[in-house]
Design brief:
Elements (H helix, E strand, L loop, with lengths): L1 H14 L16 H5 L17 E8 L13 H10 L1 E8 L1 H14 L5 E3 L5 H10 L6 H7 L1 H9 L1 H7 L9 E5 L4 H5 L2 E5 H6 L8 H14 L8 E4 L3 H12 L11 E3 L7 E3 L4 H15 L12 H9 L3 E6 L2 H5 L1 H4 L2 E3 L19 E9 L6 H9 L4 H9 L6 E4 L2 E4 L1 H4 L7 H6 L11 E2 L11 H10 L15 H27 L7 H11 L1 H17 L1
Parallel strand pairs: 1-2, 1-3, 4-14, 6-9
Antiparallel strand pairs: 3-11, 4-11, 5-9, 5-10, 7-8, 12-13
Helix pairs in contact: 7-8, 12-13, 13-22, 22-24
Pfam family, one: SBP_bac_1
Organism: Oceanobacillus sojae
Keywords: Signal
Amino acid sequence: MLKKLFFLIATLVFVSALYACSNDDGGDSDGKEGEAASGDNVNAEGFPIVDEELELTFFANKPAQNEGNDWNDILIWNEYRDLTNIDVNWNLVSPDALEENRNLALGSGDLPDAFFLAQLTNTDLLRYGSQGSFLALNDLIDEYAPNLKALMETDPTIEKAITFPDGNIYSMPALIEEDFLSLRLSARPWVNEEWLNELDMDIPETTGEFYEYLKAVKELDPAGNGSTIPYGGTAIVELVQWLSGSFGVMNHGPSNTNLDLDPNDESQVRYYATTDEYREMMEYINMLYEEGLIDQSIFTIEWGQFLANASDNLYGSMIFYDPIELFGDEIGSQYNSLAALEGPDGHQSYNKLSSSVWDPSNLVISSDNPNPEATVRWMDYFYGDEGAELYYMGVEGETFEVEDGEAVYSDHILNPEGDMTFEQAIAQDLTWLGSISGIIKEDYFQGGETAPQSLAAAEKIEPQVIDEVWPRFTFTDEENRILQSTGEDINKYVEEMRDKFITGDEDLDGWDNYVQTIEQMGMEELLEVYQAAYDRYQSN
């Protein structure tokens, strides 16, 4: 069961963009917040939220995992309607039509009362917020969102991540509980401990020891007939990001592509893909690849083939999700987790960690909304324990029971009848599959990241996790234009060259030419944009 649910979350991790932004001192947007606010029909606390029934229309992304259910008549939203006295009319859009329908709604001026999980970009939030189509929520959150406000006070990066350069907040975010490290780690490193024991080797703690282990695995060939794969994964970027902490780059997390803080001047950002440390990391990974210690198909392998290889016990190490949940106990129990490796210059930190802000645009309220205060209260419930329990577990006695103090899905979900899958059983009553909303908490999450092996791995990694993970910064209109032209061109070039350096298709002797090319493409202008965004982030 967990294995099935785990796949859904793992897919989310791969496809979801981790946006975020910096913070300012608040304010409204040309008075639009005050003009739209009513407040006459809203209770400041408790249920119902409104005494007179309120009907609202939400434009909502309906993930593929929710196929077959109707959010206008489903347990979770019926229950919440009865609690709040707010009846949401769900205008549901499939992911493949989301962008087109969202743009049509924004362009027509006939706006829904709110956009829910609609994957609005930071560029859209700023553009339509500054135009007045989206409400500034600063004062509304202060007054009507005590749960979100408490989270922002505990974790200041949340407010930084949803505040734009004009000082306004235009959305309420989807969050991961800050202490839910196992989910924020996403895929993590594993090593085949049975093979380590056969080789009479300890769990690697340095990049040198990791190399020696991979080389020994290749020579031993425990899978036989040369089929053993010392290191495998579904994407090379997972290995690059894990090793970044061993070579002193990506020192504030992966949310801002190729950007971190200059260790020689902590007031300045740097484009680390041009540094000597990054080059040294490329040399190391290139050595692994050229010696056949990395799966030679890692740039093209499909998930299905990776899982098949793992099920055949071909991997000596990997960066992936919980092995027992995915490969079964016989194969998965062979693996033990790795933390950060100490690199050749003494760097040893775990930098591959997402921001606690999963998506800044969970809920966006339009200027046509008849009761923004009630709508903010409606969303704020899902940032507290009761709301998280409702969204991810449902209704006690209907979809879950409490056993030994823990919420556990009911038997008809855990063991559905006939050909019904676990996912289909959940989707009959709940809508969270493929759509994290509010805050996801460890206590109410039943996926692979809460399995014993994953939690133990997170506990081992925790002491090496970097102190501050940057969210994705936010930018002005002009800065966005530079990012979408110069920035995208440079990042695409760096990614292409990264892969060529690793495979040896480009010789690292040409490094100086690589750096010069990036400089000529406009790196100085790009850094100025990022520096301005970082300075705003720091000033809040």
